[in-house]
Amino acid sequence: MWAAIDFGITNTDVVIEQNGQLLTLTRPTIGDPSPALVTELLQTGGSQLATLRRLAVTGGRHRLLPDEINGVPLTRVGEIAAIGRGGQAVAEQAGVDISAPLLVVSAGSGTATVFAHAETYQHVSGSGVGGGTLLGLSRLLLHTVEPKEIDALALAGDPNGADLALKDVISGPIGSLPPEATAVNFGRVGKFNVPVSREDLAAALVTLVGQVIGVTAINSARARACQHIVVIGHLLDMPSIRQAIQSVSQFYATPIWLAEKPGYATALGALKHIIQ
Questions:
Q1: Which of 95, 126, 172, 269 maximizes the CB count within 10 A of its CB?
Q2: In sequence order, which residues have a C-beta less than 8 Å from that of residue 200 and are 6 or more positions away?
Q3: C-beta of residue 149 within 8 angstroms of C-beta of residue 202
Q4: pLDDT tens across 197-212, in order?
């Protein structure tokens, strides 16, 4: 039996390989990694530390852990390698050809883009804009940091209640962009003193974050000549974010694959490093 733990900024994810099946667990990150926390996470996830052949750890402050816990050896996997390998794994499951260079986007508290080809993993770019940005701005503007509430509000809102669309600022098209595409994020409330509903504010926030992630992904892929893009990370747990990123994909006629179980991909990548 093998296992891996990804100590993220916001969430801690556990993946356990047991008899060819994967068991998973997610819980909010609280405090620094410790042997006691590792034991608790594995037990909650359906495993016992003593039954493991090896444990992989990645993310956050995983280097605070010792080389072994109760006789079980730990393998430290760098975040870039874990993100890249995890992206390859979920892309392959989706039928993407991973023999060609792949751009893996980790959409978590922030955003990181990673070049993945064979066993080569390199950081390309990224942004401080991500899930942490969405929660921080939602606290200020929506007075909530509950992802499900933010998501529901965004799905019910219109981002152009707060944004300026292309049709608001120009008289003709720009390339293949539709008239409803964003021209200025939050430009409407910057230019006009108009009331904006919570739903429209949420939609504008999600649009802002999703667009930054999508454009960063496309530009990173072009910079490294990557043929495919896959996005992982817990931010994709929100359907509204998935819609925003897919809109960018459509605007730029560039396919972006969104992982089905995105939150576990980095932990899965760390697991692949010790199994294979």
A1: 269
A2: 157, 158, 159, 160, 161, 162
A3: no
A4: 999 999 999 999 999 9
Q: What is the pLDDT of residues 84-132, one digit of tens each?
A: 999 999 999 888 888 999 999 999 999 999 999 999 999 999 999 999 9
Note the Cα 68 to chain centre separation in Å: 29
Question: In this structure, how many other beta carbons lie within 10 angstroms of the beta carbon of residue 66?
Answer: 9
Euclidean distance between CA atoms 249 and 211, whole angstroms: 9
Confidence of residue 171 (pLDDT cuts 50, 70, 90): confident
Task: Extract the tokens encoding 55.
Answer: 């444990």
Joined tokens for residue 83: 């993100």
Domains in the chain: ranges and CATH: 2-79+266-275 (3.30.420.40), 161-195 (no CATH)
Check residue 86 and report its DSSP letter.
H
Name the DSSP letter for residue 59.
Answer: S
Look-up of token digits 């409330």? 189
Instruction: Report whether 13 contacts 5 (CB < 8 A).
Output: yes
Amino acid present at 206: V
Kindly report the backbone phi and psi dihedral angles of residue 86, in degrees, each rounded to the nearest multiple of 5, phi listed first. Answer: -65, -40
Q: Phi and psi for 177 in degrees, rounded to 5? A: -70, 135
H helices of the chain, in order, are: 35-45, 79-93, 131-141, 147-156, 166-169, 187-191, 198-223, 239-251, 265-275
Provide the whole-model pTM.
0.93
| pLDDT for res 175 | 81
Take residue 86 and report the two structure tokens written for it: 């995890």
Write the DSSP assignment of 16-53 as a string of letters. Answer: EEETTEEEEEEEE--S---HHHHHHHHHHHT--GGG-S
